[in-house]
Specification:
mainly alpha
Length: 142
Protein backbone atom coordinates (compact mmCIF):
# COMPACT_ATOMS: atom_id res chain seq x y z
CA UNK A 1 0.00 0.00 0.00
CA UNK A 2 1.42 3.39 -0.93
CA UNK A 3 1.48 6.40 1.36
CA UNK A 4 -1.28 8.04 -0.68
CA UNK A 5 -3.52 4.98 -0.39
CA UNK A 6 -2.90 4.86 3.34
CA UNK A 7 -3.87 8.53 3.58
CA UNK A 8 -7.18 7.84 1.88
CA UNK A 9 -7.98 5.04 4.32
CA UNK A 10 -7.14 6.99 7.46
CA UNK A 11 -9.25 9.59 9.16
CA UNK A 12 -8.68 12.91 7.41
CA UNK A 13 -8.98 14.80 10.70
CA UNK A 14 -6.11 12.83 12.31
CA UNK A 15 -2.77 14.30 13.31
CA UNK A 16 -0.87 12.42 10.61
CA UNK A 17 -2.99 14.06 7.90
CA UNK A 18 -1.96 17.50 9.19
CA UNK A 19 1.69 16.45 8.98
CA UNK A 20 1.28 15.23 5.41
CA UNK A 21 -0.24 18.54 4.29
CA UNK A 22 2.84 20.46 5.46
CA UNK A 23 5.95 19.30 3.51
CA UNK A 24 8.38 20.36 6.24
CA UNK A 25 6.44 18.55 8.97
CA UNK A 26 5.99 15.53 6.74
CA UNK A 27 9.73 15.30 6.07
CA UNK A 28 10.53 15.80 9.76
CA UNK A 29 8.04 13.10 10.74
CA UNK A 30 9.40 10.64 8.17
CA UNK A 31 12.98 11.31 9.30
CA UNK A 32 11.92 10.75 12.92
CA UNK A 33 10.20 7.48 12.05
CA UNK A 34 13.26 6.45 10.04
CA UNK A 35 15.67 7.21 12.87
CA UNK A 36 13.58 5.54 15.60
CA UNK A 37 12.73 2.53 13.44
CA UNK A 38 16.33 2.21 12.27
CA UNK A 39 17.69 2.29 15.83
CA UNK A 40 15.18 -0.32 17.00
CA UNK A 41 15.99 -2.48 13.97
CA UNK A 42 19.74 -2.16 14.56
CA UNK A 43 19.34 -3.03 18.23
CA UNK A 44 17.31 -6.10 17.27
CA UNK A 45 19.91 -7.23 14.74
CA UNK A 46 22.60 -6.96 17.40
CA UNK A 47 20.45 -9.04 19.79
CA UNK A 48 19.65 -11.87 17.35
CA UNK A 49 22.40 -14.31 18.39
CA UNK A 50 21.68 -13.84 22.09
CA UNK A 51 18.98 -15.36 24.24
CA UNK A 52 16.02 -13.05 24.40
CA UNK A 53 13.80 -11.02 22.13
CA UNK A 54 16.21 -10.28 19.26
CA UNK A 55 13.86 -11.25 16.44
CA UNK A 56 10.91 -9.62 18.16
CA UNK A 57 12.83 -6.32 18.27
CA UNK A 58 13.84 -6.72 14.60
CA UNK A 59 10.19 -7.17 13.65
CA UNK A 60 9.22 -4.19 15.83
CA UNK A 61 11.81 -1.99 14.10
CA UNK A 62 10.60 -3.07 10.68
CA UNK A 63 6.99 -2.47 11.72
CA UNK A 64 7.87 1.07 12.84
CA UNK A 65 9.61 1.71 9.52
CA UNK A 66 6.72 0.15 7.60
CA UNK A 67 4.37 2.83 8.88
CA UNK A 68 6.12 5.26 6.53
CA UNK A 69 8.20 3.23 4.09
CA UNK A 70 6.75 0.63 1.72
CA UNK A 71 10.09 -1.17 1.33
CA UNK A 72 10.12 -1.88 5.08
CA UNK A 73 6.72 -3.55 4.82
CA UNK A 74 8.04 -5.84 2.08
CA UNK A 75 11.15 -6.65 4.12
CA UNK A 76 8.97 -7.32 7.19
CA UNK A 77 6.79 -9.80 5.29
CA UNK A 78 9.89 -11.46 3.81
CA UNK A 79 11.63 -11.72 7.21
CA UNK A 80 8.54 -13.13 8.92
CA UNK A 81 8.09 -15.74 6.22
CA UNK A 82 11.70 -16.93 6.41
CA UNK A 83 11.81 -16.78 10.22
CA UNK A 84 8.70 -18.97 10.40
CA UNK A 85 10.24 -21.37 7.86
CA UNK A 86 13.46 -21.55 9.94
CA UNK A 87 11.53 -22.29 13.15
CA UNK A 88 9.47 -24.99 11.43
CA UNK A 89 12.63 -26.53 9.92
CA UNK A 90 14.35 -26.54 13.31
CA UNK A 91 11.33 -28.20 14.95
CA UNK A 92 11.58 -31.09 12.48
CA UNK A 93 15.27 -31.72 13.16
CA UNK A 94 16.64 -34.39 15.42
CA UNK A 95 18.20 -33.69 18.80
CA UNK A 96 21.75 -33.58 17.40
CA UNK A 97 20.97 -30.75 14.96
CA UNK A 98 19.13 -28.81 17.65
CA UNK A 99 22.13 -29.25 19.97
CA UNK A 100 24.48 -28.02 17.24
CA UNK A 101 22.38 -24.87 16.70
CA UNK A 102 22.30 -24.28 20.46
CA UNK A 103 26.09 -24.82 20.64
CA UNK A 104 26.72 -22.37 17.80
CA UNK A 105 24.55 -19.79 19.56
CA UNK A 106 26.40 -20.35 22.84
CA UNK A 107 29.73 -19.98 21.04
CA UNK A 108 28.68 -16.63 19.53
CA UNK A 109 27.62 -15.40 22.97
CA UNK A 110 30.85 -16.60 24.63
CA UNK A 111 33.11 -15.06 21.99
CA UNK A 112 31.23 -11.76 22.18
CA UNK A 113 31.51 -11.70 25.97
CA UNK A 114 35.25 -12.42 25.70
CA UNK A 115 35.77 -9.73 23.04
CA UNK A 116 33.92 -7.15 25.13
CA UNK A 117 35.88 -8.02 28.28
CA UNK A 118 33.04 -9.52 30.33
CA UNK A 119 35.12 -12.53 31.40
CA UNK A 120 37.93 -10.28 32.63
CA UNK A 121 35.45 -8.12 34.52
CA UNK A 122 33.74 -11.03 36.26
CA UNK A 123 37.07 -12.78 36.84
CA UNK A 124 38.32 -9.64 38.59
CA UNK A 125 35.41 -9.85 41.03
CA UNK A 126 36.71 -13.24 42.14
CA UNK A 127 40.40 -12.36 42.07
CA UNK A 128 41.10 -14.26 38.84
CA UNK A 129 43.54 -12.14 36.87
CA UNK A 130 44.31 -14.71 34.20
CA UNK A 131 45.69 -13.08 31.04
CA UNK A 132 43.53 -15.11 28.66
CA UNK A 133 40.37 -13.66 30.22
CA UNK A 134 41.33 -10.20 28.97
CA UNK A 135 39.70 -8.74 25.90
CA UNK A 136 41.86 -8.59 22.77
CA UNK A 137 39.95 -5.46 21.78
CA UNK A 138 40.02 -3.45 25.01
CA UNK A 139 43.25 -4.83 26.46
CA UNK A 140 43.91 -5.72 30.03
CA UNK A 141 42.73 -3.88 33.12
CA UNK A 142 46.30 -3.13 34.13
Amino acid sequence: MTTEQRDEQTDQSGKRHRFRRNPALNLTYRIGVGVVGGLVLLGGILMIPYPGPGWLVVFAGLAILATEFEWAGRVLRFAKRYYDAWVEWLKRQNLFVKAMVLSATALVVAVTCWLLGAFSLVGGWFGLDWPWLGSPIFGSKG
